Amino acid sequence: MNRISLFAAALAGVLCAAGAAWSQPYPSKPVRVIVPFPPGGANDIVARIALPKVSEQMGQQFIIENRSGAGGTIGSTFVAQSKPDGYTLLIQTVASHASNAHLYNKLPYDPLRDFVGVSPIARVVSVLTVHPSLPTRSVKEFIALAKKRPGEILHGHSGQGSFTHMNGVMFESRAGIRMVQVPFKGGGPAVIALVSGETQAQVAAIGELIAHIKVNRVRALGVTAPERIAQLPDVPPIADTIPGYESATWVSVFAPSATPKPILDRLNAELGKALKDADTASKLSAQTLDPAHRSPEELTQRLRADHETIGKLFREAGVKPN
Question: How far apart are alpha carbons 179 and 185 in whole angstroms?
Fold first, then answer.
């Protein structure tokens, strides 16, 4: 065999091997899922409820990894810079993902350009809670106290740019009060601070607080949905005191931009199937979370809308980027 024939044979072998590798069904190895906050927050809770079912359906491990820090930007940066092959995903609320662009001058990624939506998993509604040492039993009383003590009440949140931070800023703006925003490294540490009395108030996901509400470690004053929530039937909406008040977000799955559409579509379909599973839906409901499956296009549209809305909110509230 001459040199040309040998080269052609070798090239054909390489192409065949590459074609075989390319045609491997997705996923052919474990999928890494980054939660950019410590355990115990809404992102982490939702991921650990929904993804085991997805793993079971797809016959491959979905390994949840908490990479916390800088309001979720450390974990998000890691995913943004990962290979867009469907094997590294991000679990983040739409609001938090959108807000960071308005809070950091040198954010190492662009949430609109460097990510693509896969699907929401759950709608997150929050609740205004206070430490029992605070003598307030309604939203109205809390607002009155905050106006008497401007800049004294400590509102804990799960990091600069987090959904909890946005909730606190939004509540201040709509109620016409001023609190001290205290950042923590995630929802879990922020809740611990509230329960211990290190902070006095928090507008955080109901799932993060409901266990403490039920045993009176914290007092619930109002939910951020426009209607009462089945799991907290005695807690009125904040909108009863501040007409039109509403705050909710989606905990969602994002992938690096340029991830192939067939992979996005497969993940979206499997997430939708998992959210219809009775056991998964029941576990989400127990955490006051509503399944929220949508198309990648709808998620991307919501991200763009929240990016604009939150930017306006922070500008009006005088929140300046770091």
Answer: 19
Structure tokens at 204: 């955080």
- pLDDT one-digit tens code per residue, 147-165: 999 999 999 998 887 889 9
Span 196-206, mean pLDDT?
Answer: 96
Q: Which residues contact 136 (CB under 8 A, 6 or more apart)?
A: 130, 142, 145, 219, 221
The residue type found at 233 is P
Classify residue 122 by its DSSP letter.
Answer: E
Q: What whole-number distance in Å separates Cα of residue 133 and Cα of residue 262? A: 54
3-class secondary structure, 282: helix
Tell me how long the chain is.
Answer: 322
| Domains along the chain with CATH numbers | 30-122+249-317 (3.40.190.150), 125-240 (3.40.190.10)
What DSSP character marks residue 233?
T
Name beta bridge partners: 237: 223
Q: How far is CA 192 from CA 79, 131, 218, 220, in A?
A: 28, 11, 11, 16
Q: What is the pLDDT of residues 205-223, one digit of tens each?
A: 898 899 999 999 999 999 9
Q: Which residue has the tokens 């509102």?
A: 155
Instruction: Tell me how crowded residue 320 is: count the other CB atoms within 10 A of its CB.
Output: 10
CB neighbours of 219 closer than 8 A, spacing ≥ 6?
129, 130, 131, 132, 134, 136, 137, 213
pTM: predicted TM-score of the whole model, two decimal places: 0.81
pLDDT at 2: 53
Predicted local distance difference test score (pLDDT) of residue 11: 46
Neighbouring C-alpha atoms within 13 Å toward the C-beta of 296: 20
The answer to whether 316 and 274 have CB atoms below 8 angstroms apart is no
CA 265 to chain centre: 21
